[in-house]
Design goal:
Blueprint: H1 2-34, H2 48-79, H3 84-102, H4 114-134, H5 141-144
Helix pairs in contact: 1-2, 1-4, 2-3, 3-4
């Protein structure tokens, strides 16, 4: 019975880590997008619309990144990878895959789309580190016992 509770606890930790990573990635992306205006323009105020944008971006990030993140989490759990660099690079790969999934049905990708793609990959790096902080440091403990 305690083994089943351990599995359920690990599943809950993974879900919380994924949600936290989505919110951290969306906040990082919103700050990057807010600061990418004209050089002489004042910085936007981080108030209500900013928080709404972060919430909407988190939902979009989580939606498009779910399948690639599931694969990365499964690899990390089965291999017992607990280092932050693995999770950061996996987050970048998940973000790249999610960007390609999001742009799959839109207009053809051109060279003008590299800036949003690079922003998403940077958000993936930050999301991977955020996931590592919550759930990645104990990846595979339930399986390997270390």
């Amino acid at each position: 019975m305690s083994r089943v509770l351990g599995y359920l606890w690990r599943f809950a930790v993974i879900i919380v880590g994924f949600a936290f990573a989505a919110f951290v990635a969306s906040a990082f992306g919103a700050v990057l997008l807010a600061g990418s205006g004209e050089p002489d323009s004042p910085l936007p105020v981080l108030d209500g619309p900013f928080y709404l944008m972060v919430s909407v971006l988190a939902a979009l990030f989580a939606y498009y990144a779910f399948a690639p993140a599931l694969a990365a989490i499964l690899v990390a759990e089965l291999l017992g990878r607990r280092d932050w660099l693995f999770h950061a690079l996996a987050g970048a790969g998940v973000a790249a895959a999610a960007a390609l999934l999001a742009w799959e049905h839109s207009v053809p990708v051109s060279s003008a789309d590299t800036w949003p793609f690079l922003i998403m990959v940077a958000c993936g790096l930050v999301a991977g580190i955020a996931y590592w902080a919550v759930a990645g440091r104990s990846s595979g403990v339930w399986l390997h016992g270390r």
